[in-house]
# Entry
Amino acid sequence: MSTLLLNMDDIEIGKQQTTIRNITDEDVEAFGRLSGDFNPLHMNDEFASKSHFGRRVVHGMFTAAIISATHTDLTGPGFVYVGQELNFKAPVYIGDTITVTVTVTGKKEDKRILILETMVSKQDGSVVLQGNSALMELEGLKARRVVSQETEHA
# Structure
């Protein structure tokens, strides 16, 4: 993760960040405990084996949480989520390796908001999630960045 405090002007349209992650049983179990989502489709092998998926499916929101982390890797700590559209295209299974890619596609300068395309694919290249997100620059942090830079140059 970037700890550099970036602002809107530092982030160009087209900037991209990618995260690659193998999803484990431990990830799914931990997410179930943290979120309280104990749907047996995610948590119970026997139940899931009788579904049309044939096996346990990773929580869709776990995949979305990795998108959030990828955003922070792209921008650093100076932005906050203000919107996300998620279109689930295919399941993610335990053992899959996913690639999360976020790309800056636009800016709303007046509101200090970045618009990003989000895409998640599996090891076989199939897209499992697509959408768009919006991140807003944190104004208070921007002011602190300016003060910090002035202190460094004094």
In short: DSSP finds five helices and five strands in the chain. Helices lie at 25-35, 40-43, 45-49, 60-75, 139-153.
